[in-house]
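Protocol step 4 of 6: structure prediction from sequence.
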Amino acid sequence: MQAINDISERHAEVMGLDIRRVTEPAAIETVSGLAGNIWRDHYMPIIGDRQVEYMLNRFQSPAAIGQQIVAGYQYFLLFRDLRPAGYFAWLADTANRSLHISKLYVDKTWQRSGLGSRIIAVTEQYCQAKGLRQIWLTVNRHNRSAIDFYLRNGFLNSGEVVQDIGGGFAMDDYRMVKALQPR
């Protein structure tokens, strides 16, 4: 892992976070393992074990994460007490002045502790520094706790998105959007 170069290290320290950009194979393995734990715990009741395993393999295996990083996604690990506590990934679209939060997951031990909101704050700071005016993401329509979290953090539901992801599965999501005020 490298020192954070796209997120202000000073801001991360002030927020009480240890955030590290993921670039090395060992860090990619850590993200993939963390994803497996978080997804199996949280999503099996929502989408079932077959779809969870399919999505982990397709989107959160070390190979898939590596391919996403090559394609321009930035992955970050969040540490608390020197242990991985969560991860997030985003892709900036400078032409549309927006940022897509592709992943934002916090281990259940640290959920409801403010870490997710701090990640949103760091993301907003990054967007402001880069002149991006909108953050967007998708969230499963049946993931009530995550939907409520995003609403509390200023996102608005802009509609349903159903996307075929292969293997006989589809992502049945809402698109959530947060407009940012220019500085």
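Step 5 (inspection) to follow. The longest strand covers residues 83-93.
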